[in-house]
Design goal:
Blueprint lengths: L51 H30 L4 E9 L4 E9 L6 E8 L5 E9 L6 E9 L6 E9 L1
Antiparallel strand pairs: 1-2, 2-5, 3-4, 3-6
Length: about 170
């Protein structure tokens, strides 16, 4: 009796008994050959092949989606670049329960005037102090401003809420 590894592998009914010979494999034309297989794949099995008009419409649709995406990215980029006033918080110093000193930078046209709202916030994010700061024309586009915000109770942070040209 031969060893178990010398036995031929069982094959399913209709399967190619010797896959290395190429018999029983597809010919690429939708027809199959081999023992027990004499069928042709139905022509519409995977749907109708798209016609030239459908392919053209798909390309136009894809182009429209791509153009819209590019337009949105450009609109966002140009909008961010066209912001007339930008600010950045540098730091703050809590001076007890009555005031917070805040330092921030404002970037705008050198000859423009901006009005910034600064807020002092409590640990629960409640506004405990607010102040308007006018940043006037200067010789440079970026100015560093330090202001003291009076508070009604102890603040834990200070932020710039808005800056607009005034």
């Amino acid at each position: 009796m031969p060893a178990p590894d010398a036995l031929p592998a069982p094959t399913a009914p209709g399967a190619d008994p010797d896959p290395g010979t190429g018999t029983g494999t597809g010919t690429g034309t939708g027809q199959f050959s081999g023992p027990g297989i004499d069928a042709e794949v139905p022509a519409d099995r995977y749907g109708r092949a798209p016609g030239p008009r459908r392919r053209l419409l798909a390309r136009i649709g894809l182009g429209a989606v791509a153009a819209t995406g590019v337009a949105v990215v450009l609109w966002l980029a140009l909008g961010a670049a066209a912001t007339p006033v930008r600010w950045e918080e540098v730091g703050f110093d809590v001076q007890g329960s009555t005031a917070v000193e805040m330092t921030f930078t404002v970037t705008k046209d050198a000859d423009a005037t901006a009005v910034c709202q600064v807020q002092a916030l409590s640990a629960q994010y409640a506004e405990v102090g607010v102040q308007s700061v006018t940043v006037g024309p200067a010789g440079t586009a970026t100015q560093q401003v330090t202001t003291t915000i009076p508070t009604a109770e102890l603040a834990v942070t200070a932020v710039v809420s808005t800056c607009e040209l005034g």
